[in-house]
Amino acid sequence: MYLPKKILDSINSLGQIYEVGGVVRDRIRYSLSLDTGGIDHHKFWSYPAEEVDYLVTGMPIDALISGLGYYGQVELAGRSFGVIKFKLHIANCQAKTVDIALPRKETSTGLGHRDFEIEFDPDLPVEQDLGRRDFTVNAIALNVANIKSRIPNLIDPYNGLQDIKDRLIRMVNPRVFKEDPLRMLRACQFAARFQFSIEQDTFKAIKKNARLIRTVSPERIQQELNKMLLKADQPSIGLWLMQRSGLLKEIFPELEAGVDVTQPGGYHRYKVFEHSIKSVDYAPKSLEMRLAALLHDIAKPRCREVFEGGAHFYGHDKLGEKIAKELLERLKYSGQIISRVALLVRRHMFAFPQTEKGLRRLVAKVGIKGVYDLIELRRADIRAQGRGTEEDDRELDHFEQALTEVINKNPPFTINDLEVDGNIVMTEFHLKPGPKVGRVLRRLLDFVLDHPENNKKDLLLDEAARLLDTV
């Protein structure tokens, strides 16, 4: 959300306000002409930013807080940090929070992104504040004092504009990775997301400092990985850079284990790691699907057995479920994501049922969403083998069509779909709550999965009576 002109003018009457960070970088990328290398001014100013960060110089923080208070809600993220959270008052609309900061100096006192002495000073020049940024493409400020001129007034002391034109990720200074080791993973994320290269000296610095990624919390690593998986069309670019730089073995030793594992035989052109990251590129842009694609063959290095003319990986789906759970738990993913990804990894080798009965049982095991996700995972898996054919795609399409036809008949797939429930069973047969009731319901579900036409109360109760003699 951009601040309205009246707020910009109010601040500029006492100080100077700039847009900083990713919004300036993305304005440039959005408006840069590939033919001339120039900026299309109309596109530059019309860029639809989701988040905008501002920097204010030459204005004391108390005056800034007081001035902003006329227009919205002001909250200090920390007076010592010089960062204000501002939410504009907009009638009948839920406004987003905007970060407005004062220039600050950060002095490292140890490893980690919190080991700093921070001092903000409204009189610091904007160029000095930009010097604490991570990469040159993010170290550009936009002076918004006179936006009517339409010609962007960029403050670019580190030549970030040229690096954007050259599609390069370059560190602002040699200290950036020691100051916050997460920036090494962020460089790979940006390279994948923008399809940029990492500048040579910057990449050397990442390789040199790769072990420092161990000092970063798993939650922060997860957030950066998620951005790579969800915002990049080809996350494999960043994952390859992680492997080449040494970050992969520090964060995902389980994935590193597949780098040199070949898959001889007629199905796979690539080694396990390369196949896995190509699968991510082909998977739909959802976190669960891309994590499942990344991890679906995670156990292959441990399950590999070579024979003359090929190799097999029996049990890698089952062991992969266990490894995927451990890896995702280590990175503090939610229980819901872990269970969904683990299910997809466990079932990714599913066979195509040849009958409606088999299709119903597959849906009962993984759910309607789960079975469609498995189809998309199989599609990504096949395309990433490097030897997939149009026939493989057609076979998946036919399977999906048959599946949809079965689902549209609305047969029962779960216990909740039965025409009887636990209360009815307990009342009819004078049972108390307990495991016996659950066992009866599960057997009834088996009964109607094979014969959905029998999902009628009287038929189910007859079957329950018969079952109670054996349950």
UniProtKB/TrEMBL annotation:
GO terms for molecular function: ATP binding; metal ion binding; nucleotidyltransferase activity; RNA binding. The keyword Ligase does not apply. Residues 196-256 form the tRNA nucleotidyltransferase/poly(A) polymerase RNA and SrmB- binding domain. Residues 321-463 form the CCA-adding enzyme C-terminal domain. Residues 18-170 form the Poly A polymerase head domain. GO terms for biological process: RNA repair; tRNA processing. Keywords: ATP-binding, Magnesium, Metal-binding, Nucleotide-binding, Nucleotidyltransferase, RNA repair, RNA-binding, Transferase, tRNA processing. Its cofactor is Mg(2+). InterPro entries: CCA-adding_enz_C, HD/PDEase_dom, HDIG_dom, NT_sf, PolA_pol_head_dom, PolyA_RNA-bd, tRNA_CCA-adding_enzyme. NCBIfam families: HDIG (TIGR00277). Belongs to the tRNA nucleotidyltransferase/poly(A) polymerase family. This is HD domain-containing protein. It comes from Candidatus Edwardsbacteria bacterium GWF2_54_11. The lineage of its organism: Bacteria, Candidatus Edwardsiibacteriota.
